[in-house]
Design goal:
The chain has 259 residues and is mostly helical. It has 8 helices and 4 strands; from the N terminus they run ββααααααααββ.
């Protein structure tokens, strides 16, 4: 009768030092994020792109309340991320009751914590930065003037919470799956990361088409999610010596041959 078993360790290609790993995984992406921000925020790239989307949609946000954008992708995407988190929680709970799943406990805990911290940090920053959505701005049919990230916001304008992008983070917060796969299935890490990035791009682009966010809002959601994933990985594991904690395989209980 086939049963689930785990074989380990699977040695990973080690980084020479933790500093080199941090440089590759954290410093380089953050540098690219800052450069992108200079182009999009300081260089008005955000408005350049939003202007073209706005005109292309007929000088109003045509897809703001469309079923496919507001219900299927916006609400449905949020529910999908929540459901994925629930599956990870259930898998983590199983590691306490099934000894065969115990080696997955730390990788699953890492993935769940990284997603929660990324989403929570984005939500917290949204309330602090006080930036408007494009659809609220006079330039795009709204009532408010544009107030930059580092400009003082008049109290009369009221509260705003559009930077970074919350919905895009529902996809991008899962970039931690790269490191999860690095621990349990290294050969799947790039396909898994590519899938998550694609989901994040779809979520972000849809919100831009609705007038809910500028491109820089999505860029920073990705940067925050990736930074949290890297820092938490560095805190929970040793990238210079870590081995795969669990590699699930189906084996035959009678002779140990693949089922």
């Amino acid at each position: 009768m086939p049963q689930l078993s785990f074989t380990h360790p699977l040695l990973l290609a080690p980084a020479a030092t933790r500093r080199e790993f941090a440089t590759r995984a954290l410093l380089i992406p953050l540098t690219l994020t800052v450069l992108a921000s200079l182009l999009l925020m300081a260089g008005n790239g955000d408005q350049w792109l939003a202007d073209r989307l706005y005109r292309w949609e007929g000088s109003h946000w045509l897809y703001k309340d469309a079923w496919w954008s507001s219900h299927l992708i916006h609400k449905g995407g949020r529910n999908l991320s929540f459901f994925a988190g629930l599956l990870v929680m259930l898998a983590l709970a199983r590691t306490w009751f099934d000894a065969r799943w115990k080696p997955l406990r730390r990788p699953l805990a890492y993935l769940l914590l990284a997603v929660a911290l990324s989403s929570g940090l984005v939500s917290l920053l949204k309330s602090w930065t006080q930036m408007d959505c494009p659809w609220d701005l006079e330039r795009y049919g709204g009532l408010r003037p544009f107030i930059g990230l580092f400009q003082a916001r008049p109290v009369a304008l009221g509260h705003a919470a559009c930077f970074p992008a919350g919905h895009a983070s529902a996809g991008y917060s899962w970039v931690a799956i790269y490191f999860f796969m690095l621990l349990v299935r290294p050969q799947w890490r790039w396909p898994a990361l590519a899938t998550v990035l694609l989901v994040g791009v779809v979520f972000g682009l849809t919100q831009q088409l609705r007038g809910a966010h500028f491109l820089s809002h999505d860029v920073w959601s990705l940067a925050i999610s990736w930074s949290v994933a890297v820092l938490l990985y560095l805190g929970m594991f040793n990238p210079t010596h870590e081995t795969a904690q669990a590699v699930p395989t189906l084996t035959n209980a009678n002779n140990g041959e693949p089922a």
